[in-house]
Amino acid sequence: MSYTGLDRFIARQRFQAAYPHIRKGSRVCDLGCGLDAAFLDFAAERIADGVGVDDQVRDGAAGRWKRVRTDIRQPLPLESAGFDNVVMLAVLEHLPEPEPVLREAHRILAPGGSLILTWPSGMVDPILKVLHGLRLVSDEMESDEHQKRIPVGTLQQMLHRIGFNEFIHYTFEFGLNNLMVATR
Questions:
Q1: How many CA atoms lie within 13 Å of 124's alpha carbon, on the beta-carbon side?
Q2: Mean pLDDT of 31-47
Q3: Contact 120, 93 (CB under 8 A)
Q4: Which terminus of the chain has fewer Cβ atoms in its 10 Å neighbourhood, N or C?
């Protein structure tokens, strides 16, 4: 099953939240980009060079963007300090052990670069379960694999230990989703 219309609508809300934090001319890595690296297309006017990384994509170039098929929980086959932004949109909640992935995000970010994260609140899971049962959200959304959410303060402490320093956090979609920008 491919993405549903509701999947795309939900993703677009995350894209709109992350977009203002991408500077024009940026090198962007989308970790956990999903089937079609859609955020890179959404933000194309601000992206000079983009790479989508996921275990669901095909390796190689597709349109303007390079795609790398790999498990993001493993060391990434990407150059250190090669990106101005790393985006992880609705990825954090799928990671049983997020710290190694966040360390890799830090490694591939250039000094002064930013990590842009979105993740749903735990209140979303029962809603997604019903929507999945009705086949309104696809299996590709992997909502059945959501982990217990990390409290914002704990996540910020983890990111600080890794080497991030400036933080912006807010919620969107009536408090059902979070956005955090952490600067290297």
A1: 22
A2: 94
A3: yes
A4: N
Distances (CA, A) of 137 to 2, 8, 58, 101, 105: 10, 9, 23, 26, 28
Q: What mean pLDDT do residues 71-97 have?
A: 96
What does the alpha-carbon distance between residue 66 and residue 59 come to, in Å, rounded to a whole number?
A: 8
CB 179 within 8 A of CB 171: yes
Q: Provide mean pLDDT across the span 23-32.
A: 97
Q: Which two tokens stand for residue 23?
A: 């500077």
d(CA 175, CA 184): 26
Whether the pLDDT of residue 141 is over 70: the answer is no
Residue with tokens 């992350």: 18
What is the CA angle 24-29-31, rounded to 5?
140
Mode of pairing for the β-strands spanning 177-183 and 109-120: antiparallel
